[in-house]
Amino acid sequence: MSQTFDEISAQLKKRHRRSARLKWISMGALGLAGLFLLWFFSDMLGKGLPAFQQAQIQVEIDYNEDAQRMGRAALDRDVSRLVSRTFERMIPVQMRENPELLGTTETRWVLADSEVDQYLKGHRHKLNEAQQALVDELAAEGRVALKFNTTFFTTGDSKMAEASGILSAAVGTVMTMLVTLAIAFPIGVMTAVYLEEFAPDNRFTQLIEININNLAAIPSILFGLLGLAIFINFFGVPRSSPLVGGMTLALMTLPVIIIATRTALRSVPDSIRHAAFGVGCSRWQVVRDHVLPLAMPGIMTGSIIGLAQAMGETAPLIIVGMVAFIPDVSASFTEAATVLPAQVFTWAGEPEKAFVEKTAGGILVLLTILIFLNATAVILRKKFERRW
Length: 388
What we know:
The protein is built from 15 helices and three strands. The chain has helices at residues 5-48, 77-80, 85-97, 114-120, 129-140, 151-154, 167-198, 203-215, 220-234, 242-266, 270-278, 283-311, 315-319, 340-348, 354-384, and strands spanning 53-62, 105-111, 144-148. The two termini are 51 Å apart.
């Protein structure tokens, strides 16, 4: 029985209403995601930007005989309670290294205690009323101020919040990523080239492809367990070192690079391969001189994204011990080190309020690096992308 015009119109209106509802639901979901991102970045900026400022206090240092044993003796008693203990501990060391300082005085800006820093920033603090009044008096005299926190970028970790920095973690991150790149990139590219250009299509290669796709989807902490069992327990690679961290992250990054490389190789038209075979090139010459150069932009893009993903990982590095307290920069790939995600994880577990902004500041630095790497990958893809 054929439908009437009114029935068809009613069905069309019902379909249009469903489409409109789906459209508004999709737009609402997109809006919620945008609001979440906006809230996330606003919260990180609000908590992290204060980390780039640090309270400093101008003090007069009297290099007397008592200061050779106890640095606090070189400062005024009331003011010394506002100065970071890190600086006080350095006074005897400076006097031993420079004996001519004995009997002299010096006026300089030094790190203030973290509680003074929190008070000046309007955060919760533990200063008593007398100390607050002294800080206000010194601030009125221009002897206490918030200045750019160079310590955050030039020092390593410390148990005192005002002296904590990301230098050792940043260097450890670079060293770990160098190891990851040196292992994962050549092995991943060569594996992809073999599977895509040389390997026969049989059950064995299909099984390898399935396993590679599965490895790209398993939780990252399992790679940490694998690194602990193989590299540390079996091969004896030093624990907490950039070497073992880089090797562990290389295992995690390999599937990403292999999949990205195979996709880039497939994007090269077969006509280029046929033309190269037509002029007498061998299969290896075709891959080396024609296919790989054309696929290299896609390979580089996928590799950069894979390294950016590895740089943000914490779980596998915790398993291999890269959450140690590292105040100094590592001198070699086999010495103990930490990385930025692990440093942020460590700070997040500290009870002092001042470490909250240190945590957010470290996250901002890490996000900046990751955004830069992803932007670089996008720019490379747009610049060298070819349409066939």
